[in-house]
Amino acid sequence: MADPTAITAALTGLFPLVKEVFLMTQVLFEADKKLRSFWARVELQRAIFDAWEDGWLDARDKPDDKIKAYAFEKPLLARGILKEFVSLLKTLSDPDKLKKRYGLRPERIPKYATRNDDVPRDLRYYSDYLSSVDSRFNIKGLPAFNKSINDHLNLLKTVRYVIVGKDYELEDVVIRFTEFNRDLQLYTDSEANNEAAQRIYEVVLTGLHSKPDDPARLAEAALFEQKATIDPDAKRFYGDIAKFIGFSLSLRDVTVLNGRGLSPNMPSQKIFTRRDFSFDAPYKLGPHSTLARLLDYPTKYQTRLVLVEWVPVPKTVNVKTKLEGLKSEWYVLHADKPDGLLLPTAQGLVYDNTDSNFIGIVFQLPSHIRTEVPPKIAGRVDPRVVRSPKTTAAQRMPTSLRQLILQQPALDLGVRFKLAQKLLNSLHLMHTAGWMHKRIRADNILFFPSQSRDGEPDPTRLDFENPFLAGFHSARLEIETSSVLEVAAKPLEHIRPLQGLGKVLNQPRVVALDAYQHPEYRYNVNLPYRNQYDLYGVGAVLLELGLWETLEMLEKGDIGRRGYDPRVVPTKDDIRKDGETVERAGWKLDRIMGSTYGKVVRECLTLKPMPGDLLGLERTLVARLAHCQA
């Protein structure tokens, strides 16, 4: 068996060769417009390989250390990776195999040509040499190996492929790269594969703004691969890539339009009026959101249950201007998205000339929740159909994470670990695409009833596998009225008088939701919003999830005792104390959720500025959470 040191050296040396054969194949297909579909598919496979390769690189962009550790820890798997590298390079360096299997002929690039050129002979020599890099390969053969791969690489840089076969043979080239990537994943541990799956979204967006056509072609290639494969995991993987690129392109389009002072075109049928809905009291979720029945939709006499979030229009803002701005938000959120993004699909806007104070954003609900809602049909009453909104709401209403924490015993550790990973993964995907949520809080994370076997909502079980991320209104952070006595175990006189109001409310509002915001941003809300502020908000949610306490309950109601009226700006001292309370509470997680979970949350909640690769940090934190198990 090849020793780990030799495996490390061999893999490190072969990485550039693998990248070169990818490049040679791309150049071949890119040169002919008729073959651009092949180019996009090879480029997609190269992106998948690059995402996999990046996981092995250290701070110096060298793979030596990580590969060495892997080769010593799992020598059989590392040997399998080496075997795949050698197999690919032998195939794509052997002139006979290239012609017979793929209809390709290697030839010298004209500017490098010499009189005594014999490219097939030279390539055949290096292909034959690679046969010696097998289970018997050891450190004694490294000097000859290093010289051979350097000469091999220099040769490939002066060679190009020429098509001499048929299109179906070119299809086999793409299939060979696809199989290569698939087999690499089989020889790689789950942690590295998870990180690569996260990293692929960053790789496919390279050049999004400078060369927007490239990501679009990659999306088409991903859709092609999704249809071609029969593996359900591969179908989901390629489908998510295509959807993610589409979502990112919609963000780019909106950014370009807004930069020109424009908003995206929106079909008139997507702008509803209040008369198109039935807003029943049992469906109300909060002061700025409600479920509602969308009448005569999608066809006459049909009804769909939707979520409407009301966006207030300040008196200083023209309602038409606000409407144009919300068209951009609709345009982004109505695009297809990968399931891991957790963002809902926007169906349209609610705008009424009779009400200039609010504009609604209409969101689509899960299929088993939104459909089969009893319609209101004049003159047609079916006694078998229960039409009471109260009854329907009892079967379909969501429960927020905040409500769960306040009203229910703690969820199983396994459920909380998976939920934490989903939330952090969703944030990473948002930031990779260039989107910031800005209002990630426990009351904006909703769980709808699970789907029963007959396809109906089951109000006895919540669907924790598919959290619904809401909260896209721009209202000031506030919370429902509740007495601090409920959370602080302190008498009412300990509540400070409201600044500027000169009285103590009988039921003071506990505005703990402000504590989800990073203290730096709370000090000055005019600062440009940063990804780190979103990460802090998710950290606060993961803290609540781990301790099973809402923020105002932490430290025996410490934040709750600093409750203040939402009309009053908190002092800097209050903000500092809130941050310190959250930070102290983070150290209690280790004994409940384990040290790995605790460290992840504390990194999210750090108050120090995070320079450098924040996306890389988020990706690493998601991978760490994957190790948390009950």
Short description:
With 630 residues, the chain is an alpha+beta fold. Helix content is 51%, strand content 11%.
**Please, how many helices?**
24
Oligomer: single chain
The secondary-structure class comes to alpha+beta
Alpha-carbon Rg, integer: 29 Å
**Main pleated-sheet profile:** 7 strands, mixed
Specify the overall morphology: globular
Describe the structure.
- This protein is an alpha+beta fold and 630 residues long.
- The chain is 51% helix and 11% strand.
- The protein has 24 helices and 14 strands.
- It has helices at residues 4-30, 36-54, 64-73, 75-93, 95-102, 119-130, 142-156, 167-186, 190-204, 213-228, 232-259, 319-333, 367-370, 389-396, 401-407, 413-433, 485-488, 519-523, 531-547, 554-561, 572-586, 589-593, 595-604, 614-625, and strands spanning 104-108, 159-163, 271-272, 277-278, 284-286, 289-295, 303-312, 346-352, 355-364, 399-400, 445-447, 449-451, 457-462, 468-469.
- Strands 3, 4, 5, 6, 7, 8 and 9 form a seven-stranded mixed sheet that branches. A three-stranded antiparallel sheet has the order 10-11-14. Strands 1-2 form a two-stranded antiparallel sheet.
- Helix 20 packs antiparallel against helix 21.
- The model is unreliable at 381-386 and 474-511 (pLDDT under 50).
- This is Protein kinase domain-containing protein.
- InterPro entries: HeLo_sf, Kinase-like_dom_sf.
